[in-house]
């Protein structure tokens, strides 16, 4: 059974296939065509954290492809009403896909271990692979290529940064990461990233000006992720020099775009003039979540039915 728990689960060609399916279905969507590629399939959403984009884009994606979605709240009792093995085995009898948003990554791994349908990571503390696939779709649409570009991510390493780093490494995009030392990338992930066969460069620094130099894509995420609220004051202090503002943005390529997974905290990780300015593609990026989810669901359906 193929799941999507992290982008490390996919090789470069598989990511390309998902992007191609996503763009093809998006093109049809803009022409008013909604193919029922997942007719009568059911998608369960098991979410332990809030969501606008991930939840709604998956629900609309499966609906537009002819299937249906079920949003599961706390009352299903995941992790406390019965063993996860029973929970996962039973849920798989009803659903053709499960999208899960939770805290520790080991929880989604346990869900997938017992699932007989594909489990998709809708965000854990560690990774956010579906976000990165939509980001790659947005970058590819804008630049008409992926390889040879440079992404600069400034801020704290979190789920979005880790998945973006893996995605860039796998697709030949150079990745420059600027973080304070205390929010830097974990050494084991750094080693894993170095081992991916990629053409792009991988650069880590605590100097935001160096990282952003000549970047084609400048990327930000919130400094305080869901579940870290008690650290917000200390994070704001440590991360202040990493704010993306006009003077830092001037160091990027003049045709650079700004991306943010959203939700954003204007005045923290990015200033309003940048996120609401002409270089920002945040709304197109958010819209692409739905098109990328269609690619992910269709690809997983094919991958699991052809093997
Ligand atoms: N970017 C993202 O995953 O947004 P939500 O938290 O609203 O799903
Ligand atoms: N890093 C953020 C991403 C939200 C989509 C969080 O986990 O809250």
Would you give an account of this structure?
The chain has 307 residues and is an alpha/beta fold. It has two domains: 7-128 and 289-303, Rossmann fold; 130-285, Aspartate/ornithine carbamoyltransferase (Rossmann fold, 3-Layer(aba) Sandwich), CATH 3.40.50.1370. It is built from twelve helices and nine strands. It has helices at 12-30, 53-64, 84-94, 105-114, 129-143, 159-170, 187-195, 208-212, 232-239, 246-249, 272-275, 282-306, and strands spanning 42-47, 68-72, 97-101, 119-121, 150-154, 174-178, 202-205, 217-220, 257-260. It has a five-stranded parallel sheet with strand order 7-6-5-8-9. It has a four-stranded parallel sheet with strand order 2-1-3-4, sandwiched between helices. Helix 2 crosses helix 12 (282-306). It is globular and about 55 Å long. The chain starts with 11 loop residues before the first helix and ends with a helix. 47% of the residues are buried. The structure holds phosphoric acid mono(formamide)ester and norvaline. The site of norvaline has 9 residues, from helix 6.
Properties at a glance:
307 residues, alpha/beta, Rossmann fold, 2 domains, 5-stranded parallel beta sheet, 12 helices, binds phosphoric acid mono(formamide)ester, binds norvaline
